[in-house]
Amino acid sequence: MGQTVNKNLFSGEDPVGRKIRLGKVSCNVIGLLREKGQSGMGRDEDDLIVMPLSAVQRRFTGNRDVSSIHLSVMDGVSTEKVTEDLRVLLRKRRHLSENEEDNFSIRDTKELAAMLTGTTKTMTTLLSSVAAVSLLVGGIGIMNIMLVSVTERTREIGIRLAIGAFEHEVLLQFLTEAVVLSSFGGIFGIILALGASFGLTHMMEIPFIPDLKIIGIAFVFSAAVGVVFGYFPALKAARLDPIDALRHE
């Protein structure tokens, strides 16, 4: 039995020599598998019981059919050659002529890995596109908010310029406000994403390991959005004519 089964049934104690009941069948435990952890798909590789094929066919399935066979290739052995040899053997065992197609399928983990890689790239491209659109929409929103802020504070800006404030100081003030606004939005988004990721991984029973590098990049991007989309409103505020600004109602 696997380590997870042992923990659930015997609290991690040595199970060898003990009996367990599977349905109506009493079985003796003759060994404990080495801990493997989770697979790449999130499956617990330790939550299993291994039995002789003949015993399973006789006591549980009631027939001699085998739905799948898993093979492990030793290091240095060509998987392509093993796959071809296996195909020849299965065709011979199934009495298939040269003109008949295979009535079985052989899957190499390399093919599965390539398929998963392709799917991952597609999802990454899709999510990147969604993120780019979200950044654009968020940036436009920040720019509109800052333009409204400049309009509402025109008189305040005029007073600052009239008493000696430099244009670059006004520019820096509004640019800082835009960056702070976008950074708070980025922090809120990061917290929301971490919460959603934790919830999904908890439901799927896979470990949640946040990537600090990605989090840092996300925060930098959110701040950069504030700089890019906040520059025009800040420049507009810095270039206001003090006299016209003081007349603004």
TrEMBL record:
Using the record's annotation, list all stretches that form the ABC3 transporter permease C-terminal domain.
Answer: 129-242
Q: Which InterPro entries match?
A: ABC3_permease_C (IPR003838), MacB_PCD (IPR025857), Macrolide_Exporter_MacB (IPR050250)
Enumerate the transmembrane spans: 126-150, 170-194, 214-232
Instruction: Return the Pfam families for the record.
Output: FtsX, MacB_PCD
Give the keywords, sorted: Cell membrane, Membrane, Transmembrane, Transmembrane helix
Where does the protein end up? Cell membrane
Q: Which GO terms describe its cellular component?
A: plasma membrane
Its placement in the membrane is given as:
Multi-pass membrane protein
Q: Does the keyword Transmembrane apply?
A: yes
Domain MacB-like periplasmic core: start-end pairs? 2-87
Q: Determine if Transmembrane is one of this entry's keywords.
A: yes
User: GO molecular function, one example?
Assistant: transmembrane transporter activity
To which protein family does this belong?
Belongs to the ABC-4 integral membrane protein family.
Q: What is this protein called?
A: FtsX-like permease family protein
